[in-house]
């Protein structure tokens, strides 16, 4: 998990409709939040439209519970000519003690798009 706790991109609380049959939050719900956060960071870096092209790795560490305040952290991990790998970590603030619990982590790849939705070079650093 990231040590960069200052790069929070989203903070959200799941709703009761997001619970699966086990009483945990659906994995697809958190995957969606991660994709949104990664897209925000990739769009900022690419200075324009991006598309998710791959999830290179994804690891669920512990379940998300109803009542958790979920924080999604994202930062650039590596860059190619047209693509960015964004590391995304998800942490819950849980219970009255405000315990910080690592939930999941993943490496998402986004490609910069031109006006024809084709890959385009990223801006210079």
TrEMBL record:
<dbReference type="InterPro" id="IPR033120">
    <property type="entry name" value="HOTDOG_ACOT"/>
</dbReference>
<dbReference type="InterPro" id="IPR029069">
    <property type="entry name" value="HotDog_dom_sf"/>
</dbReference>
<keyword id="KW-0378">Hydrolase</keyword>
<comment type="similarity">
    <text>Belongs to the acyl coenzyme A hydrolase family.</text>
</comment>
<dbReference type="InterPro" id="IPR006683">
    <property type="entry name" value="Thioestr_dom"/>
</dbReference>
<protein>
    <submittedName>
        <fullName>Acyl-CoA thioesterase YciA</fullName>
        <ecNumber>3.1.2.-</ecNumber>
    </submittedName>
</protein>
<dbReference type="Pfam" id="PF03061">
    <property type="entry name" value="4HBT"/>
</dbReference>
<feature type="domain" description="HotDog ACOT-type">
    <location>
        <begin position="2"/>
        <end position="116"/>
    </location>
</feature>
<dbReference type="GO" id="GO:0016787">
    <property type="term" value="F:hydrolase activity"/>
</dbReference>
<dbReference type="InterPro" id="IPR040170">
    <property type="entry name" value="Cytosol_ACT"/>
</dbReference>
């Amino acid at each position: 998990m990231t040590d960069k706790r200052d790069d929070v991109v989203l903070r959200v609380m799941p709703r009761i409709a997001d619970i699966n049959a086990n009483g945990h939050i659906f994995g697809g719900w958190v995957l969606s939040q991660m994709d949104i956060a990664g897209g925000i960071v990739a769009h900022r870096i690419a200075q324009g439209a991006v598309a998710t092209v791959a999830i290179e790795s994804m690891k669920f560490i512990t379940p998300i519970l109803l009542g958790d305040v979920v924080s999604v952290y994202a930062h650039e991990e590596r860059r190619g000519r047209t693509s960015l790998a964004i590391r995304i970590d998800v942490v819950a603030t849980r219970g009255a003690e405000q315990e910080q619990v690592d939930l999941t982590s993943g490496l998402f790849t986004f490609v910069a798009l031109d006006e024809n939705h084709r890959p385009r070079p990223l801006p210079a650093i």
